[in-house]
Design a protein that fits this description.
Blueprint (H helix, E strand, L loop, with lengths): L1 H13 L5 H12 L2 H24 L8 H23 L3 H4 L11 H13 L3 H15 L7 H30 L4 H31 L2
Helix pairs in contact: 1-8, 2-3, 2-6, 2-8, 2-9, 3-6, 3-7, 3-8, 4-6, 4-9
């Protein structure tokens, strides 16, 4: 029980800081549908579960190859640039009320966007290793596989809960906003996504040219 509670709280709190995933969830929910935003959020929450599991069970060595890490970062960079430009170029008809648009893509495509955006952030790797070390060092979770599993599952549930609350809060207000303000919000989100893309690109280039 303590393992599940600790995992839920950590998963929920970890997802709160503003980052590319939060922005992407809101952008998807605003430009396409609530279901697409939730699908992207579930993709990210599943990766929270995977990373937390790998950290708790000590499997992170499989993620630490430099070529694998660079590939995921490159995919994340491309996705951020793509959605950033798309949000900047949004038209009034694309965001009108934000809730009655047809599903232009299958929901699983949004799910995989969430997965790859998560994988593109190398800081999550060190973060979950640190969290797992602290959890086990302070004996908040008994070192048995069932407790580790409960902790990891609760991390994913906590992250998904935050994304749902965030999207639900903004989605209710989208219905009452004028199309012009929705378009402005979409462009602001696009600028933020491109800002994250620039930072990620700078980090990748810095590591490539570093002796």
């Amino acid at each position: 029980m303590l393992a599940a509670l600790a995992g839920f709280v950590i998963g929920f709190v970890t997802s709160i800081p503003i980052g590319p995933i939060n922005v992407a969830v809101l952008t998807k929910g605003m430009r396409e549908s609530f279901a697409h935003g939730i699908s992207l959020a579930i993709g990210a929450a599943v990766m929270d579960f995977v990373y937390a599991s790998a950290a708790m069970f000590g499997f992170f060595a499989i993620f630490q190859g430099p070529r694998v890490g660079f590939l995921f970062e490159l995919l994340g960079f491309i996705l951020l640039v793509y959605f950033g430009i798309k949000s900047l170029r949004s038209k009034q008809t694309e965001v009108d009320n934000g809730v009655k648009l047809p599903l232009k893509r299958e929901l699983h495509s949004s799910f995989w966007v969430g997965v790859f955006l998560y994988l593109s952030n190398p800081t999550f790797l060190g973060y979950w290793i640190t969290v797992a070390g602290a959890i086990q060092a302070y004996k908040l979770v008994i070192s048995e596989w069932i407790d580790n599993l409960f902790f990891a599952v609760a991390v994913g549930v906590g992250a998904a809960t935050w994304f749902y609350v965030l999207l639900k809060f903004f989605h209710k207000r989208l219905i009452t906003l004028k199309p012009e303000r929705l378009r402005i919000m979409s462009r602001i989100a696009g600028c933020i996504l491109l800002g994250f893309a620039c930072y990620l690109g700078y980090e990748m280039i810095s590591r490539l040219i570093r002796p």
